[in-house]
Amino acid sequence: MIRDNDVMNALLDSVRRFVRERLVPAEDIVAETDAIPEDIVRDMKTLGLFGLTVPESYGGLGLTMEEEALVMIELCKTAPAFRSLIGTTVGIGSQGILIDGTPEQKDRWLPALARGELIASFALTEPESGSDAASIRTRARRDGDHYVIDGSKRFITNAPQAGIFTLMARTNPDDKGAGGISAFIVDAHSPGITLGPIDRKMGQKGAHTCDVHFDGVRVPAANVIGGVEGRGFKTAMKVLDKGRIHIAAVCVGVAERLLDDTLRYAMERQQFGQPICEFQLVQAMLADSRTELYAARTMVLDAARRRDAGEDVATEAACCKYYASEMVGRVADRAVQIHGGSGYVADNGIERFYRDVRLFRIYEGTSQIQQIVIARGMVRAAQAMA
Ligand code: COS
């Protein structure tokens, strides 16, 4: 749902300009230094990018899912690391508070998140618990009006920058499954929290992940999201449903950038006395990328509109994440192929995007997890009809 077309077009124009004038020229420096320059972070805050999804009553822009998807598509026509910095706050780090938090929790944390003063990180994955999210071992033991948290989380995006973690921990050790898990808002500067070294990743330089260790960390009982134990897994799943549409939009944005660059190259690059875009085998690759990109974009916007209309989109969100992340992998592969030798060397960003996009098929649920979610959703829907 787009609430006001003029306001939306103005926002998309300013994001487009910001990407073109500030982010694209900084791509090399981000890759070389593995950091986003401070002045760009400042401008991202000024532009309101950290508050895109926080409701207006808390100082954000309160974008609908469709509006968020459109902004992500524009914002991601550059290195994905820029989106990653705001991504956990706009997406999975803050959504638990937004979706299931109490009014007091929203009042306390959302305004600072919207201003970008506080970065939120989503802490679900553990060394022994990835796709099987219900098997987490991090413990939260009640002690008076606090919980004491012990355990480790792994691959936590933006952990080095985080001000708070949305943390899933087991409050009921007798329930080894989803029902024993609660979600907490944890101050990242609490005594007992230590960070592991920053992970050395295949791509996405400038976006940081690391382990986070919790050793006797005391968290007020008031920080249980929603104030009720045992609901943390469902909160995490609801957050991921929305996050999957968000990531699918990110994939569409990156794919649009890759295809724009590739088309331009194919129109300029001459071989056998003509631009290579005149060759039918190159045309086939361009056409396949264009077709798949169009399909992914259409899916993302449809799922976003359905979510805005209040539909349960767990299945559609998984379809979008699955298709769009696989699609951008194929688009990146064809981009390298069409660029030939220039696509394989590190001087025009194509090989960097090729490495960057590999992550999309893995995080926020692997392609195989999306397939499971989709198939289970189909069976559930069929059973409901019977
Ligand atoms: N929204 C709300 N509730 C949900 C839900 C959703 N999308 N998905 C599941 N639930 C509920 C179920 O209804 C069930 O509730 P009841 O016990 O009341 O019936 C409960 O959560 C457990 O669900 P389920 O039995 O389906 O859980 P499983 O352990 O089988 O796991 C998958 C389901 C595999 C889908 C889940 O573990 C998953 O998404 N894994 C991937 C995690 C991931 O994306 N990790 C990436 C790291 S975060 S960047």
From TrEMBL:
PANTHER family registered for this protein in UniProt: ACYL-COA DEHYDROGENASE
Similarity remark: Belongs to the acyl-CoA dehydrogenase family.
Annotated protein name in UniProt: Acyl-CoA dehydrogenase family protein
Residue ranges of domain Acyl-CoA dehydrogenase/oxidase C-terminal in the record: 230-378
InterPro entries to which the protein is assigned, alphabetical: Acyl-CoA_DH_CS, Acyl-CoA_Oxase/DH_mid-dom, Acyl-CoA_Oxase/DH_mid-dom_sf, AcylCo_DH-like_C, AcylCo_DH/oxidase_C, AcylCoA_DH/ox_N, AcylCoA_DH/ox_N_sf, AcylCoA_DH/oxidase_NM_dom_sf
Transmembrane segment boundaries: none
Pfam family, one: Acyl-CoA_dh_M
Keywords: FAD, Flavoprotein
Cross-referenced Gene3D superfamilies: Acyl-CoA dehydrogenase/oxidase, N-terminal domain, Butyryl-CoA Dehydrogenase, subunit A, domain 2, Butyryl-CoA Dehydrogenase, subunit A, domain 3
Domain Acyl-CoA dehydrogenase/oxidase N-terminal: 9-117
Cofactor(s) the protein requires to work: FAD
Domain Acyl-CoA oxidase/dehydrogenase middle: 121-217
Source organism (scientific name): Pseudaquabacterium terrae
Plastid listed as a keyword: no
Keyword Ribosomal protein in annotation: no
